[in-house]
Every structure is written in C-alpha cells, then in structure tokens.
Design brief:
Layout lengths: L2 H7 L8 E6 L2 E7 H7 L6 E3 L3 E4 L6 H17 L10 E5 L6 E6 L11 E11 L2 E9 L10 E2 L2 E4 L6 H13 L3 H4 L3 E7 L2 E2 L4 E2 L2 E8 L13 E8 H10 L5 H13 L10 H7 L3
Length: 281
C-alpha cells in the first residue's frame, strides 16, 4: 500500500454507466443509467433520454426546481433508495460561486453526480518533539463510515453559510472548539476527487484548513457524531494513512495534503509529483 493507493481509491469511476444531468441547459452532474430509468416516473420534473437527465424547462426558477425535485426525491426516501434524509440543502450549479440553479437534499446529491463541497480542518499541536494531530473516530451508529477515523473537524457545505462560518459551526459541534479559537483556522487550499459509489458519483471538493491548537486543549464532541478523539504523533497518522484503510476515504486526501505542505512528504519522495497531482483529481 502507498499514498498513491489512497489517492487512486478516491478516483475510481467509469462514466460509461452514466448520463449527463442538465439544468437550464447547463451540465451539472451525472446520473447512473439505472437511476435515470426510474426518473421517467416523474415526467413533470425530469425529461430523460439516452444521453441526459434534464429538469423540465417548465420549471424555470430556482425555487420551482427546488420544490419539484424535493417532492420527487421524497418518494425515493420513502422506499429506502435514498437513505438517511438530512433535511440539509446543498447548492446545485456549474461552480462553487454559482450561478446556483436549485438546492437539493444532501443525501440525494450523489444520485445526481453533482459536485458537493465540504470543509475539513487539520487540528494539530506543535511540540519540541514534532507535530501531533488530533484525529476523530466516527460514532458506530453513524449511517456512513461508522467507526472509521476522521479528520479533526469536517462537514459538508450547505446552502446559506460561508466557509469560515461553517468551520466555526462544525468545530463547535464536533469538537467543542470556542469560536474565537476556531476563527484562527487558516484556509490552505483544497483537494478534489471523483469516486463512483453504489448510489452514483461523487466529484467533490474539500476546502482545507489548518488550526494550530494549544497544548492544553482537549476536544469534546457535542453532536454525537464522534465517539472519541486521539492525539497522535504525525508519524503515526502518516503510517495509518499510507498502509491501512482505517480513515474515511476522503480524509486520506486531507491528511496527505497536510503531509506535503508541512514537508513530511518531501519533494525527493519517489512519488511526490504523482501525489501532488493526484490530490486534485
């Protein structure tokens, strides 16, 4: 196993099994052909052919599309196709800053191969002996990736909140970080990937932040999503990332990005160029 294996695992997909998802003439995602066939049952919302799934042109506004798509998707939630309905809306459009064409339930986003965004925070402590990282372990009752290792703080980027405000909110809920401390998180770039899942496609972007924590800080989870926190030397985090699949898959990319930026994977590493390129799949 290697860092390149972790990157490759985040980028396995075959678009031959998908058709384009189009809104108002703009391609915004990809739909599995098997799921596209089921959308033909909603002709007032979706038009489906061999190459595309499109939202009906009669739904001409952001609000109308959002309402109509939500009504259709609730049927898929009721029959168990879409699991774990969150009631949290993600923006759908051609790019992060829009224009946004509708908002869609978070758990439905992969079914339409829409690019989702998130914020991930590397919480670390600088000691004389080297860097140490705070790592979360996901609760065993979480519907996704239960019991796996996770970044210090992470969350999806919903409609109606800025990136730093989302970091502050998630840091409070997941790790009990005071707002004044969370506000010190530094935006340091992003990673991206495109992974095919059983539901559909995840062509996602994670905005990464570094947060240097005081030596005496101890995180406390407040929303029940993290079972425990571990403070480990960065070398241990590197070994787990490189040689196991114990981290939630996309957290590996965030870890690797941290290792590169802090010189822990140096330019003379034999895979350095491929690693850096691979973080932007």
């Amino acid at each position: 196993m290697s860092f390149l294996d972790r990157i490759a695992e985040c980028n396995r997909h075959d678009l031959a099994g998908f058709v384009r998802f189009v809104v108002a003439g703009t391609p915004v995602g990809w739909v599995k052909r098997s799921f596209a066939a089921r959308l033909t049952g909603f002709p007032d919302v979706f038009t489906v052919d061999d190459e595309t799934v499109a939202i009906s042109p009669l739904l001409a506004t952001y609000e109308a599309r959002t309402r109509a798509v939500a009504d259709a998707l609730r049927g898929f939630a009721a029959d168990g196709t879409i699991k774990g309905w969150r009631g949290e809306l993600y923006p759908v459009g051609a790019g992060f800053h829009g224009p946004h064409l509708l908002a869609m339930e978070r758990t439905a986003i992969p079914f339409f191969g829409v690019r989702a965004y998130g914020v991930h925070v590397n919480g670390f402590v600088r000691r004389a002996t080297g860097l140490e990282m705070w790592i979360g372990r996901r609760a065993v009752d979480k519907p996704t990736f239960p019991g796996m290792l996770d970044n210090f703080v992470a969350g999806g980027q919903p409609v109606g909140i800025g990136l730093l405000d989302n970091v502050i909110k998630e840091a409070d809920e997941e790790a009990g970080v005071p707002a004044a401390l969370a506000r010190q998180a530094r935006p340091i770039g992003l990673v991206s990937y495109c992974q095919e899942t059983a539901d559909g496609l995840k062509p996602d972007v994670l905005f990464n932040f570094d947060l240097e924590l005081p030596d005496d800080f101890a995180p406390i989870n407040r929303d029940g999503e993290i079972a425990a926190f571990h403070r480990w030397p960065v070398e241990r985090v590197m070994a787990i990332t490189e040689t196991t699949r114990k981290f939630k898959f996309n957290c590996n990319l965030v870890n690797i990005d941290f290792f590169v930026r802090h010189g822990l994977i140096p330019p003379d590493h034999p895979d350095y160029v491929e690693i850096v390129r691979g973080l932007h799949g």
